[in-house]
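May I ask for a protein sequence together with how it folds?
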Amino acid sequence: MAIADEVNDDVARCRVYEAIVPYLDGDEPDVVLEAVRHIENPFSAAGLLARLARRGLTDEQRGRALAAAYALDSRKARSEAFVGLGPYLGSDQLATVIADVDRMVGDEVFESRLQALQGLARQLP
């Protein structure tokens, strides 16, 4: 992970992190979650959050990933992160995210992301 920290370009740094995500052990996802907070490109950060979620996170790490998604400074990137995290959230977290994306609707991008999230919610028991 030290190599990723030395890369100056956000997009390239995210690609390095994404490449190592499948090999992370123990608390190492926490290091990447912390790094996400310092990535200036919100879309790169959103993609990295989704990659981390697919890898598998603890409940606490999922909560921190969701908090990192909420901290993204682009509504479109935030909604992209929500869709990436959606399949791995609990029903309460997913309901909150759906309500928040619902408030963003008015743009075609948000409509499609809201529909994707609502589809996930229908699959929950």
